[in-house]
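Hi C.,

You asked whether I'd gotten around to modeling the 528-residue construct. I have! Everything is below, sequence then structure, no commentary in between.
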Amino acid sequence: MMLSRSYNMHRALGSTITSTSAPITARLKSSSAAPKKHLVTHEEGVHQTMALSKSWRNKPLFRRQGDVRFKSGLEASKLLIAEAKRRDAHEEVFIESISSTMEALSPLFDRNPRYAFVAKQLMEPERFIQFRVAWMDDVGVIRLNRGFRIQYSSSLGPYEGPLHLGTHVNAGLMKALGFDNVFSNGLTGYDVGSSVGGSDFNPSDKSEAEVQRFCQSYMTELSKYVGPDMDLPTMGMGVGGREMGYLFGQYKRINAKSTTGGVSFMAKQDSYVSALIVSDVLLPPFCAHKLATDLFLSQFPGHAVVLYAKEMLKDRNQSLMGKKCLILGSGKNARSVAEKLLSFGAIPLTFSDESGHVYEPNGIDEVKLKTISKIKMERGAMLGRYVMSSTTATFNEPDNIFDIPCDLVFPCGPIHTITPEVVAKLADNGCMGIIEGGHKQVTIEGRQALKNRGVMYGPHIVTLTGANIDHEHDHKLSEQILESEVKRIYNDVKATATEFNARGDLFAGGSMVGFLRVANAMMAHGAV
């Protein structure tokens, strides 16, 4: 395909830049490779003297009302943030993403001023697609929603990113998630671009027929912009196995080509089953298909979250064994986090949803986790039903889930759940760390509070790379490969943070690793 050949040409033409960054090209699949050079220099080692191009510091970063230059990396980041606010002040979530990321990148701008000019390009997505989604509900009324797909960056490869459904979805959130996804996809070292999409449609209070009609209408328009080797939509918030099945079915119906390399676009062929036995109960084919796709396809992203937590604790000479864990949310990712925690001997205590939270003082074991999974398998089912099947669980007691003493918190629910007030409460109760299992769970003020209190923080741009690892291995991933890839990514992030005087700051390290890989490719492409 033409697009695929263009990426191959880029890797050939851009070798003068990308060859200086062995972690990008090595993909860490060969232990016999030559010693790796650093991402931002031709030299080897951690502390090196980089040949700076002073001419870039003398060039104006902006030329709107006279030439505007910068003298330091921090000044450059402030100029970039001010420009984002000037253009998109109404998109608060997007401004938050820009602000926190540019501040983290300021040491890079100090070391090589040219990166500030690349960051200016990266603040604008390559393509922003918004469209009307019209569908008919069960009583014959035509309903309207907004559909989005932001193809943010294709510097490293074809677009790839999740679809999100929910009333919280808007243009600003889509831009913020797309921007964050650039760094998350980039730091993995894989040849994959960044995109994100979705709609302000809430599937939890709709019938199955309504969800299907919506998905078909949404994909009818989206299919013009996605496809094999072009843009791969993946599961996100509110999008599970059934939604992906409806979307792919419509795509296949209206497109002649729906496979790449013999593998179905958007679908894993061997994940579809006709029946599944869970807890000695034979489920009907449709429910079996739902549970199989939801749990099978989402287990590795959730497992990766826990593996990152394991690596973080290892740096503190501790393990997950016996750690009491709060899990916020009860979706596919939250449940796979609990599954992996149990395998390491940790003790999940809670799940939550819109109705409140359930708390098991003695922990949620595998049998209880299966019960919760069966409840959440039914569309729109509330978690409160679980207390009917447990004699030890409490519902919304205590009133505030953060009053429960714990060692670790895994937020996998709505964005901006963890605020400075929550951090203070958790730290006072002895919490050691917060590891994000969902997008943008911690506010920008919450991050600073975590740093001030010395609480471990696993940012979503690092911890949510499990989906990319799974896709890169064509959904044939094993737990051993997943763990080795997580270790590799974690060590890259940790080493980069240490080099740029941000020891232990995984958000800063992850932002810099992801940015460097994307920026080095963008510099080869020119003004695009």
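If it helps when you're writing up: Residues 1-37, 41-51, 268-296 have pLDDT under 50 and may be disordered.

Thanks,
B.
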